[in-house]
Amino acid sequence: MNNETLMQYFEWYLPNDGLWWKRCAAKAKNLSALGVTQVWLPPAYKGTSQEDVGYGVYDMYDLGEFDQKGTVRTKYGTKKEYLKAIQAFHDADIRVIADIVLNHRMGGDETETVTAVTDNPENRNEQIGEKQKIRTHSRFTFPGRKGKYSTFTWDHTCFTGTDWDEKTKTNQQIYRFTGKQWAEQTDSENGNYDYLMGLDVDVSNPVVVRETKRWLRWYIRTTGIDGLRLDAVKHISFPFYRDLLKDIRKKTAMELPAVGEYWSSDPGKLLGYLDAVDNEMSLFDVSLHYNFFNASQAGADFDLRTIFDNTLIKERPQNAVTFVDNHDTQYGQSLQSFVADWFRPHCYALILLRHEGLPCVFYSDYYGNPVKDRPSVLDLGKLMKLRRYYAYGEQKDYFDDPHLIGWVRCGDEEHEGSGLAVTLSNGEGGIKRMFMGKEHAGKTFADVLGNCSEAVVIDKRGWGKFSCEPGRVSVWVQSEAFENLVVNE
Question: How many CA atoms lie within 13 A of 33 on its CB side?
Fold first, then answer.
């Protein structure tokens, strides 16, 4: 089996030109050659406007097909182009992971007068206001679609609350509709973190659950997607996704892998959530991201031996999707925590060249982001190809120095020429003596990243002395393997 690599194939600041799905289709073969086996695409359905990145959900049945919210296409293109992009990825042996957002809705077509109370934003378990009448955009009739695919109409009974009163035109309060309660099994931040934004979908309403299941079956059948990225899972009643995934897998007879976004640096919360959902999904390892971020800020003051401490990848690697950055950590976003440029190659070596977890490469890290003046990660294409061809076999760790760590992958018989050694420094650098295995005795290894010029010959006992320059990363493979590492954009 070859290594799996996921790529988040979008970022927040893409141009609103409607050409994204076409660009995806054009790049499918290139991504496959890099070793990408799965792509995570942005939300494909109609948002509140054409500029919407996809998280301001309006109509999930409109994939760029109907004239709604002032546009037929989404920011990314039309339904026809989306389906062609998926087919192009499939033709290149890449599975498609679709981003779905079930927590909230925005941009209702009609207003309703609803009785509500206000809850304390810092402790949603505390009611601070008496009953009052508010006017909400909570009725969704989707006039542009005219009942095609579904005649379901969303109204205030489908939601738990909102933050907007059309009468006063303010969003300074959190309004909970009378007769409704926030879901009990959510993240405990702010007392209860059921409410996030917009109109909070009430997943305790059986009518809502039935329609959601119906939509998901339709979506899978219509598009041919292979898996799911689940947005904002900590804001939705924990049993909801457990039951939804079990139901949809049974009815579609699909494996349908899923990865959830539970944004917390506390690995205990991530593990608790996985237990609550019976391990029906993986989670992005947010705790590891923050270790990366903190290490990049601290420089030589960070102890590299602890880089995996208090992370999901350490505690439950089979459920961990590792990443360096994503669209939410970009500059200008609410979770801004971009890893410093100098340390990003270190991070990608740590997630791409080890056996634990599923690594997720961020689009902007590979292509750069001129809008926010972010360069691409140096040698990221090579690191991805190193994972594809050579990061196999037994792993041996040498995490015995606070500023210079290393590991080896001994290779296997299935992948010709496989096996590699990695050295990584955030300080003065140095030499790491590491065991490659007697089967590599006499072989010459060289640093494919070019940071160390002197080759290493494995001695007769299987050991080699691998050096590392200050603050750099080196990856050592057999010299004759270099030809496989040419990156064609």
Answer: 11
Give the CATH number, domain containing residue 76.
3.20.20.80
Do 227 and 336 have their domain in common? Answer: yes
Q: DSSP secondary-structure letter at 307?
A: T
CA separation for the pair 224, 128 (Å, rounded) = 47
If you ran DSSP here, which 8-state letter would residue 350 be given?
Answer: H
Q: Helices 286-298 and 267-276 sit at what angle, rounded to 10 degrees?
A: 170
Q: Which residues contact 301 (CB under 8 A, 6 or more apart)?
A: none
Nearest of 373, 347, 343 to residue 361 by alpha carbon: 347
Q: Which two tokens stand for residue 452?
A: 């160390």
Tell me how crowded residue 184 is: count the other CB atoms within 10 A of its CB.
11
> Does 1 reside within a domain?
no
Which of 269, 285, 287 is closest to 277 using CA atoms? 269
Residue 92 contacts residue 32 (beta carbons within 8 Å): yes
Closest of 311, 284, 281, 280 to residue 295, by C-alpha: 311
- Per-residue pLDDT 10s for the chain (489 aa) are 899 999 999 999 999 999 999 999 999 999 999 999 999 999 999 999 999 999 999 999 999 999 999 999 999 999 999 999 999 999 999 999 999 999 999 999 999 999 999 999 999 999 999 999 999 999 999 999 999 999 999 999 999 999 999 999 887 799 999 999 999 999 999 999 999 999 999 999 999 999 999 999 999 999 999 999 999 999 999 999 999 999 999 999 999 999 999 999 999 999 999 999 999 999 999 999 999 999 999 999 999 999 999 999 999 999 999 999 999 998 888 899 999 999 999 999 999 999 999 999 999 999 998 777 789 999 999 999 999 999 999 999 999 999 999 999 999 999 999 999 999 999 999 999 999 999 999 999 999 999 999 999 999 999 999 999 999 999 999 988 777 777 766
Positive/negative CA dihedral, 260, 266, 272, 278: positive
59 is catalytic: no
Domain at 430, CATH number:
2.60.40.1180
Alpha-carbon span 101 to 186, nearest angstrom = 16
DSSP 2: P
Task: Tell me the residue ranges of DSSP E strands in 73-217.
Answer: 95-100, 104-105, 110-120, 123-127, 132-139, 159-162, 174-177, 199-201
In this structure, what token pair is assigned to residue 240?
A: 């909801």
Q: Which of 163, 231, 280, 285 is catalytic?
A: 231
Active site residue 261: yes
Compute the radius of gyration of the chain from its Cα atoms. Answer: 24
Dihedral angle, C-alpha 454, 456, 457, 461, nearest 10 °:
150
Q: Residues 65, 200, 261, 285: which is the catalytic one?
A: 261
Q: Which of 201, 222, 247 is at the close of a domain?
A: 201
Is residue 437, in this structure, part of any structural domain at all?
yes
